[in-house]
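Supplementary Note 3. Input sequence used for the single-chain structure prediction.
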Amino acid sequence: MSKTHAMVQLLLISCAAVVFCAAVVSRTASRAHAQSNPPNAALATRTVINRFNEAFNRHDPDAVAALLTEDTVFEDTSPPPDGQRIEGKATVVGFWRDWFARNPDARFEAEEIIVTGDRAVVRWVYRKIRKGQPWHLRGVDIFTVRDGKVAAKLAYVKG
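The predicted structure, written as discrete structure tokens, is reproduced below.
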């Protein structure tokens, strides 16, 4: 066997080994992803988001609180440009309780909800009366759900 032929064989065997290892790693990663995000995870996440939105639009801070993890995080859209980060269930619920009192006619209408595993993106329109006139603002919330509760709600607005 020539030296060139032996090197070609070694190269082919090496390539086959790399392809085999890549396939094993890919298959293992796919199984791990499937186990960490079972098919019903998206349904469970959507259910939590729907309940949260319903409680929010009823301006019911106790119902909202029941849907939050103890270490929940809320990132508000104000003050500009980056908003404020509020951490912990009690602090977040206190924020919403005050906000509901200041905005008794406010409503969020979900235009679209996109869910994958434990994450959800909600595209919304926020409506209320401002200075005696109908007013609205469009935005997006990025939710993380953990153990059937909202662990994070990060809000972003247009304009």
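The first helix runs from residue 3 to 36. Confidence is low (pLDDT under 50) at residues 14-26, 28-34.
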